[in-house]
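Deliverable D4.2, example record:
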Amino acid sequence: MMKPIAANEHEQGFLEYLEDIIGTERFKKPLEVLNLKVEELSAMWAEKKNRVKAAQNEVQQLDGPYQQALDFIKCDNDYKLAKSKMLQLKRFELGDQEIALTVKYTDREQKMKESNEQCLSKKRLCKQSQDELNRLQKSYDKNNNELTKFKKSLVDYETEDGTIRHEIKTSFEQEKKYEKRPVIKCLLI
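Output generated by the structure prediction step:
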């Protein structure tokens, strides 16, 4: 009986015999080439598989810090979202306040314009009053100067009047004195 497979390449087993009969010998070399290629690819696959396992191990090792970072980012995102909502609410509330303050500002600005107009009208009135006062002051000064001149004239006239009265008085006294004296008639020859 024949061995099922030959022990070496030069011997012939039952399988080799059947291959000769069927004619599959021609597929043997291409199959060997394909087997070598399969072995090469298997080696590459094993190497890549090892690399994938190493990468998976690294990923698993980095998974903890990754989860921590992800948790931190989620927490930070929640914080910023809450802060954003709070700021939006504050902005909405401040928007209402802004409208109220704008109305208040407009009212105050209107009042300020009215006050400025009143102030300007009072300044004009004050300027007119000042001009009138200056005119009256000039008139007063002029009249005061004239009064001073008249007073000086009056003093001069009173002095002169006093002198004249004194002279009249003394002349009346002298006349009375002369009247009381006896009249001596002298004839002049």
